[in-house]
UniProtKB/TrEMBL annotation:
It comes from Pedobacter steynii. Belongs to the major facilitator superfamily. Bcr/CmlA family. GO terms for molecular function: sodium:proton antiporter activity; xenobiotic transmembrane transporter activity. Pfam families: MFS_1. This is MFS transporter, DHA1 family, bicyclomycin/chloramphenicol resistance protein. It is found in: Cell membrane. Keywords: Cell membrane, Membrane, Transmembrane, Transmembrane helix, Transport. GO terms for biological process: xenobiotic detoxification by transmembrane export across the plasma membrane. Residues 6-394 form the Major facilitator superfamily (MFS) profile domain.
Length: 408
């Protein structure tokens, strides 16, 4: 693969992966305007965000079997078409109920892009390069939440919230055209796979039973759920407790994102010398030390604004190492049903992330303790899963050697 083709492929897969984050973040500044136009409240408008998250979770499980049965490109084309039509519908939505339903459909469509791009990493690149490619994709995804709300804010003020969905519709169309022109056929459709519910469930179960999958998929999902806790709790911590302005909060959010982005790129360099397994263990161990100190200090009111920013920055740096490597190792055992494995991994991550976010919102405390408690608990569970799962992987590998089997 030439450098030019490699760059184009990474750019295209990154664009597909970023479609979901852009769809989540870009319309957030328009909540007050949407509420005014649809004669409702900002709180009720947030239900359209909830419906999007539900669509993401459901859509990932839907597209996994479709991507394995029909190949990567056909389901991707269908999903992007649904996304484009749903985005167009949002432009003309005249009621909150319509917007909620259309956002659900928009999420179902965007899922095709997310799941297909992850599966195609496994198809198109050698297994040893997967963690590097995932780190590059994380760069694109991490930049999206920094850019999308800013663009959305300016667009909403200048042209109205409807224009945000016109832009999202255009992004979906550009991705569809680019995928049709430049995305290679990465996978031969497996016509033996059934789309009936029972075979699909059995297929997912066969994925979950693989020790390497459940070890690294759940390790990564629990570790990454700390990010959702941070996103959910940070407005209260910075704006309500430390009295930071909305503009200042945006700059802090961008600064902290640099930790996640930068460490994911350092991870690429570290992979030249260390294995993914080593980096995951080191990152999670460091993450545990950081959050335990963060929790103890928060309970005892040790930290001001600067210390809180530093500790969150270090926490996100650890995630920049954990996420690309756990994603790569989760999918490594699969070739025949990488689409299903990719979908299941994404659904687990989103589901646990949503629970972490909901958990933070359950506590009506003017303190960072609920946020940091969930970050700490998630890290402890992730490390326990890793340590127990690694033993199961060794047992599985030894059993396969003894029996002379070759898996997948």
């Amino acid at each position: 693969m030439t450098k030019q083709k490699y760059f184009l492929l990474i750019l295209l897969l990154g664009s597909l992966t970023a479609l979901g984050p852009f769809s989540i973040d870009m319309y957030l500044p328009g909540f007050p305007a949407i509420a005014k136009d649809l004669n409702t409240t900002v709180l009720r408008v947030s239900l359209s965000l909830s419906s999007f998250f539900i669509g993401i979770s459901a859509g990932q499980l839907l597209y996994g079997p479709l991507l394995d049965r029909f190949g990567r490109k056909k389901p991707l084309y269908v999903g992007l078409s649904v996304y484009i039509l749903a985005s167009a519908g949002c432009v003309f939505a005249t009621s909150l109920d319509a917007l909620i339903a259309l956002r659900f459909m928009q999420a179902i469509g965007s899922c095709a892009a997310a799941v297909a791009s992850i599966a195609m990493v496994r198809d198109l690149f050698p297994v040893k390069e997967n963690a590097k490619v995932f780190a590059l994709l994380m760069l694109v995804v991490s930049v999206s939440p920094m850019v999308a709300p800013t663009i959305g804010g300016y667009v909403t003020v200048a042209l109205g919230w409807h224009t945000v969905f016109i832009i999202l519709m255009a992004l979906g169309l550009l991705n569809l055209i680019a995928s049709w022109l430049w995305l290679p056929d990465s996978y031969q459709p497996d016509t033996s796979l059934s789309l009936k519910p029972i075979p699909i469930i059995k297929n997912f179960l066969s994925v979950v039973k693989e020790p390497q999958f459940y070890t690294y998929a759940f390790t990564g999902a629990f570790a990454f759920s700390g990010l959702f806790a941070y996103i959910s709790g940070s407005p209260l911590v910075f704006i309500d407790i430390f009295k930071v302005s909305e503009e200042g909060y945006g700059w802090i959010f961008a600064l902290l994102s640099v930790g996640l982005i930068g460490s994911s790129q350092v991870n690429t360099l570290m992979l030249r010398k260390y294995k993914s397994e080593q980096l995951i263990l080191a990152a999670l161990s460091s993450q545990l030390v950081i959050v335990l100190f963060f929790l103890f200090g928060s309970i005892n009111h040790w930290f001001g604004l600067v210390e809180t920013i530093i500790l969150l920055f270090l926490f996100l740096c650890c995630l920049g190492f954990t996420n690309p490597n756990t994603s790569a190792l989760s999918l490594a055992p699969f070739s025949r049903n990488a689409g299903s494995a990719s979908a299941l991994m994404g659904a687990v991550q989103m589901g646990l992330g949503a629970l972490a976010s909901f958990g933070v919102s359950m506590f009506d405390l003017k303190s960072a303790v609920p946020m940091v408690t969930i970050m700490t608990g998630a890290t402890i569970v992730a490390l326990l899963i890793l340590l127990i799962g690694r033993r199961n992987i060794k047992v599985q590998v030894q059993a396969d050697k003894d029996s002379g089997m070759v898996i997948h």
